[in-house]
Design goal:
- The protein is mainly alpha-helical and 334 residues long.
- It has 13 helices and five strands.
- The protein has a three-stranded parallel beta sheet. The chain has a two-stranded parallel ribbon with strand order 4-5.
- Helix 4 packs across helix 7.
- It is globular.
- The two termini are 27 Å apart.
Length: 334
């Protein structure tokens, strides 16, 4: 089977942007590919964070992923596989400074940190984390990486690093990973439908997959529909986002019926929002029930994921053993 690698940061609650955009797809890919999925806590350190909260978020995310259908044997925690950090350093010496300066996400996050703070601390880790991301992918010699169109740049850097490494050291060691373009809904913020759903924007901008029903319904009811600057004859971003959520929730009957109302000029926003809320609540209640079962024995979950990380680490150790030999570093015993 071809191998797929994908990772997610433990930055708090799992929202429907994460679920529809990545996690739901991860579950489906497990049936067709050899999948390795990482909870990348090293990456979460690039932005200001609380150590206790980071550890809590990591285990909470793992439980959420398991509740969503991700298989335990496919999951690892990045900090339990320290070879990622070692390979990242080696790749830092292969990647050019110019390549990193062209990474748009660094500019976006830097601007976010500096918003209202002229002297905000910007870590060098935030600048170089695309290299660690390349190590995450290449350490397992993944064939495919599931990406949306807005994530192509980081995968392209991984491909460039693999090619440069192979050329510099005179052997075709690393596979050149290919993007796996799947149908990934672009879920936008209910409060600002021109921006992607994100926790970093604040609580109004994301809907928690495991949130209480009343909270989910309230957030959908308050979702922006018309912003006042809509182009005549075009669907507003807010209304379009609600229709996308209906499709993502697999409520196609409601979607088609309400779309007919929209085309006829008879759409009631309240009916659209009720349908969206019903779809999200149905998904949430099923997943919340599974999560409650897992939370009833957290010790077993932790032992399971530590074991899966241990098994997955063996692959990473073999890669580092080879890379140390190729690059002239001393060999070590594991």
């Amino acid at each position: 089977m071809k191998q797929v690698l994908s990772c997610i940061q433990p930055t708090g609650d799992m929202h429907f942007g994460n679920y529809f955009g990545a996690v739901q797809n991860w579950v489906k890919l497990q049936e067709e590919y050899d999948c390795v999925y990482g909870v990348v806590d090293y990456h979460a350190m690039t932005m200001p964070y609380n150590p206790v909260k980071l550890r809590q978020n990591t285990w909470n995310l793992i439980i959420n992923l398991l509740a969503s259908g991700v298989k335990a044997e496919n999951l690892f925690v990045q900090s339990l596989v320290p070879e990622h950090a070692e390979l990242s350093w080696i790749f830092n010496c292969v990647c050019s400074y110019g390549q990193l300066t062209r990474m748009t996400q660094f500019k976006d996050k830097k601007d976010q940190l500096q918003e209202g703070q002229s002297e905000a601390f910007i870590s060098s880790g935030l600048f170089t984390y695309p290299v660690l991301q390349a190590a995450d992918i290449l350490i397992y010699n993944a064939d495919y990486v599931p990406v949306g169109k807005d994530q192509e740049q980081h995968l392209e850097l991984s491909r460039n690093i693999a090619q440069r490494f192979n050329h510099q050291f005179g052997q075709e060691y690393f596979k050149i990973p290919e993007p796996l373009f799947t149908k990934i809904p672009k879920v936008m913020s209910p409060a600002a439908p021109n921006r992607k759903m994100s926790k970093s924007l604040g609580p109004k901008h994301y809907i928690d997959v495991f949130g209480e029903e009343a909270r989910i319904r309230k957030q959908v009811r308050s979702a922006v529909t018309d912003t006042g600057d809509n182009v005549a004859g075009e669907m507003s971003a807010g209304v379009g986002n609600l229709f996308e959520l209906l499709k993502a929730a697999d409520r196609m009957s409601d979607h088609d019926s309400l779309m007919n109302d929209y085309n006829a000029g008879d759409l009631k926003y309240s009916a659209l929002k009720d349908a969206v809320a019903d779809g999200l609540v149905t998904i949430s209640s099923e997943l919340r029930e599974k999560r409650n079962e897992l939370n009833s024995d957290k010790k077993a979950v932790k032992n399971m994921i530590k074991q899966s990380s241990y098994e997955i680490r063996k692959r990473a150790q073999q890669t580092l053993k080879d890379v140390r030999s190729i690059t002239g570093l001393m060999s070590i015993r594991y």
